[in-house]
Amino acid sequence: MKNVIPVINHKLKGTITIPADKSISHRAIMFASLANGKSVIRNCSNAKDPNSTLSVCRALGVEIQKTDESTIIINSNGKFHPVQNILDCGNSGTTMRLMCGILSGQPFNSTLVGDESLSKRPMKRVIDPLSLMGAKIFAVNNCAPIQINAGKLTGIKYSSKISSAQVKSCMLLAGLQADGETVYKEPFLSRNHTELMLKYMNADIEYDGVLTKVRPSVLEPREIAVVGDISSAAFFMVAATIVPDSDIVIKNVGLNHTRTGILEVLTKMGGNVEILDENIVSGELVGDVRVRYSELNACTIEGEIIPKLIDELPVIAVLATQAKGTTVIKNAEDLRNKETDRISAIVNELKKIGADITATPDGFVINGRTPLNGGVEVATYHDHRLAMSLYVAGLICKKEILIKDFDWVDISFPEFEALMSCLL
Ligand code: S3P
Known about the structure:
The protein is built from 12 helices and 25 strands. It is α/β, with parallel strands linked by helices.
């Protein structure tokens, strides 16, 4: 495993193009595998998580060709012919939870397994509603390995207590194969890439805010161009906002309104963010974003916005250390169920470098503006987003920090360091 030392006190200047969205890449690979015919996915993410989805679909007998690092051709007849029934999801919660929905309605048995972190993450949130649809699922303590037996599903009306796109997508994918209609409701709108892509592939789906209805459908193959990942761009947005004299342009950023919480927060705190150009690509809004160094004020982040920035909260904690006043983050208890407990992890590591941050059961409280001292080693907790958040903090430390096991960034963003060095 590699250790990394971020370059301190160096402004960020220039233009980068952000690589493909991880959530959309997973869905493009899965949905093209379910479609009847040939799909072409352009600009697909080559990170480890989407590659886990790709190998699971291959293990299910789908013909998948990678013509280069980011172009994938999928030939399917809409049916799986499993060549393996133990399916390895690696570190990827999205692969495991969405595949649960797909596999529950299949005429064969399968078992989903994952790495140490994924094997500890809660799966009851998908097992319970799928079981109500008639799925036959077995998992000790509701954790992976998850055994899914051949089954027939019936559509249900389900009102989820959590706003999770993984749970919603799992249920909608099960609903595509169920008898009758499946109706899903969530408290706040979570990312809607599944709804948009299913519609784009001609599924019988309707959605209006937090309510989605789906009926049995065969997906049509498509050409899908994946837009850039705003969750990856967020590290650069925060870096340019907090490193003095920075001025950068990030091209090809996905701007789906269910993902743009980071832009809302940056603007609310006084950040200098500008959208330069907007377009629709394969049903998703995309644009270029210019970000400049700014003086910031604290704010409260809670309620409806949380699902729109759930993955950005560790780097928002870094941002808040540089804002004047007290930033409070609430209603984010699900952060404790991510690749690691991201509340404890970011609080522990930012404290080591001099931040005034305290954990609460459902978030954290940060008093700013505090200079970050550095001069220590920090840990990534085997979590890609922790690693990149600490890297951004490292850019403004007075003394260098050493980030242990930095290779975990490959889970979502293998290009991170190379793109950072383009701006320094
Ligand atoms: C994802 C949804 C989010 C997010 C994860 C990817 C997705 O999880 O944290 O990184 O692709 O649907 P939840 O839906 O469980 O909040």
